[in-house]
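Action item from last meeting closed. Structure (339 res):
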């Protein structure tokens, strides 16, 4: 069934199936039989991993989302066959987004604040990508399944999120931690998650990037972050991330659903995005080439100086060489604003 629904000529059929699944999962008038619910969740996870739309079409969504909800403006496919690395704070290319378009990503979950994050996203009819720590997914598989069932993309963030980072581990140990995390998240989800990976602390290595991209994984950095690991109030975080977004005008935004301040701040942030004319873009794995845009010639890594300062000289690594991905039709992007 998954193979049938993922064929391009069956687009109307797959939208109908996805709509039916979402309506089933959202119904509150009567309980859904447990076996039927399990089947719906398994099918939804499999379709999501296969690159099928992670949500019903716009007409169906409008029936459940109010006019004030942010919603999703469009879905972009990330090539699951050809890996790359995006996010201007770490890599010299990013997703080709239009002015005032944002992709929201959340790291380090699932965790105790994750249900509050999911509630806010559901109210705003927003769909995002969660980069999960494998051991957390093992501990809270119900939250992994809930996030997928609500239309979010599930991705990977290592198994242990080591304090010394994957960069300071041996290559074999780092690969083992990555693969253990992939296995743990897939098991918690009940299906293969998206082939998306984010390095803890953005501390990659050329060998690890090459290994993952050769397997079809796209590596995600970010274009701006909320600094929600810092001690601040939800209002301070809101003001900070909005100021950075207004400077960049678009981009991949990094939050942590493990942070209570982010969970508290998120409803107002989604309202502000709507108020300020921003549109939300949702990423899913697919068969189309990943839409990327190359950095300008003055690009420099934001993350490498931070990594070197935090971890010491032995963690220092030259930023990736500037690459123009002509095979993806990349254009030149403006330099990312500093965090």
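Sequence:
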């Amino acid at each position: 069934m998954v193979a049938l629904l993922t064929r391009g000529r069956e687009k109307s059929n797959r939208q109908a199936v996805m709509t039916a699944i979402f309506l089933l999962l959202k119904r509150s008038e009567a309980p859904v039989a447990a076996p039927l619910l399990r089947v719906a969740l398994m099918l939804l996870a499999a379709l999501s991993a296969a690159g099928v739309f992670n949500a019903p079409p716009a007409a169906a969504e409008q029936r459940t989302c109010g006019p004030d909800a942010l919603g999703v403006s469009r879905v972009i496919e990330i090539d699951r066959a050809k890996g790359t690395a995006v996010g201007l704070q770490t890599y010299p290319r990013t997703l080709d987004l239009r002015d005032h378009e944002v992709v929201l990503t959340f790291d380090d979950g699932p965790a105790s604040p994750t249900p509050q994050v999911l509630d806010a996203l559901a109210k705003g009819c927003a769909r995002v990508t969660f980069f999960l720590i494998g051991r957390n997914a093992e501990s809270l598989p119900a939250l992994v399944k809930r996030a997928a069932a609500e239309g979010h993309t599930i991705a990977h963030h290592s198994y242990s999120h080591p304090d010394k980072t994957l960069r300071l581990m041996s290559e074999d140990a780092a690969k083992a931690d990555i693969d253990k995390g992939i296995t743990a998240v897939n098991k918690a989800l009940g299906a293969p998650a998206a082939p998306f990976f984010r390095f803890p602390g953005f501390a990659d290595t050329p060998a690890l990037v090459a290994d993952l991209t050769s397997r079809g994984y796209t590596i995600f950095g970010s274009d701006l972050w909320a600094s929600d690991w810092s001690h601040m109030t939800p209002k301070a975080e809101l003001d900070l991330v909005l100021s950075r977004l207004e400077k960049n005008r678009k981009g991949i935004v990094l939050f942590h659903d493990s942070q209570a301040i982010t969970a508290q701040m998120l409803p107002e942030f989604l309202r502000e995005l709507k108020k300020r004319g921003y549109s939300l873009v949702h990423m899913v794995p697919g068969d189309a080439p990943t839409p990327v845009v190359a950095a300008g010639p003055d690009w420099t890594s934001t993350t490498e100086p931070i990594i070197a300062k935090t971890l010491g000289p032995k963690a220092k690594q030259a930023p990736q060489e500037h690459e123009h991905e002509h095979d993806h039709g990349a254009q030149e992007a403006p330099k990312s604003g500093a965090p």
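Note appended to the action item: Residues 1-64 form one domain.
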